[in-house]
Amino acid sequence: MLLWDRLYHQESLYPATWAALPWLWQIAGRHTGAVAPLFDFFAHLLALAKRAPASYCAYEGLPLSGADLGHWHVSAPPAMIPPADALFEALVVWIEPWAVQVCRALNTLIEGADRAQAAHYLRGVTAWEHPEHESFERALGFLADGWSIKEMLYTLEADEDVPFHMSAREISFAAQEAARLQGLCPDLATDIRALVDVVSTDRPETPTQPHPDQMPLFR
């Protein structure tokens, strides 16, 4: 309840989310019973951190200045700004090496995990280490929620606001991930290969044809 209600809400991260991380990291290292729920939380945080942070944030929900702590109708108390600045600066330095360790641990936890849990872990790793593969990360989110490939693609293709499209580069990356996961989580590897097969089939017959914006270069 603390993690999913107090430190996170409806795919939103907050300054308190990030400020709690060093303490949560210590808990994960000292209490084996806390590892599973905490790494579930860490994976979700990584999946959202680089998605669309505001211009005044280092990561989603982590402002660069204490002055940005206020709500739109409540300003941050002036006395709070200097210590908040120092905290946020220290967090930005701390987060990068922390995330490297978390990604390494998540890749280890994938082995032996069920399909949905493995997809959840992989989503966090992919979003943090390869944010350019946003469509693949988006698909992993559906797999983490237990959707089938057919159900997922039907829903994504019906989303007019955010059209789903995997580039050739993303398809290649997903295929490589499926091969890597074969010995770690065969069920997830199978699903990713199925996704690759479907989106590859849906691509144009001549994928090497220049994009319309590039046509003047070939005239």
Indicate the topology.
Elements lengths: L1 H5 L8 H16 L4 H15 L7 E3 L2 E2 L17 H30 L4 H15 L4 H11 L4 H9 L10 H14 L4 H17 L17
Antiparallel strand pairs: 1-2
Helix pairs in contact: 3-4, 3-5, 4-5, 5-6, 8-9
Overview of this protein structure:
This protein has helices spanning 2-6, 15-30, 35-49, 81-110, 115-129, 134-144, 149-157, 168-181, 186-202; strands at 57-59, 62-63. It is an all-alpha fold and 219 residues long. Strands 1-2 form a two-stranded antiparallel ribbon. Helix 3 packs across helix 5 and helix 5 (115-129) runs antiparallel to helix 6 (134-144). 60% of the residues lie in helices and 2% in strands. It is built from nine helices and two strands; from the N terminus they run H-H-H-E-E-H-H-H-H-H-H. The mean pLDDT is 84.
Radius of gyration: 20 Å
Mean pLDDT: 84
Strand order, sheet with most strands: 1-2
Low-pLDDT stretches = none
Number of strands: 2
Describe the main β-sheet briefly.
Answer: 2 strands, antiparallel
Secondary-structure-derived class = mainly alpha
Q: What form results from the Cα inertia axes?
A: globular
Structure, briefly:
It is built from nine helices and two strands. It has helices at residues 2-6, 15-30, 35-49, 81-110, 115-129, 134-144, 149-157, 168-181, 186-202; strands at residues 57-59, 62-63.
List descriptors.
globular; single chain; 2 strands; mainly alpha; 219 residues
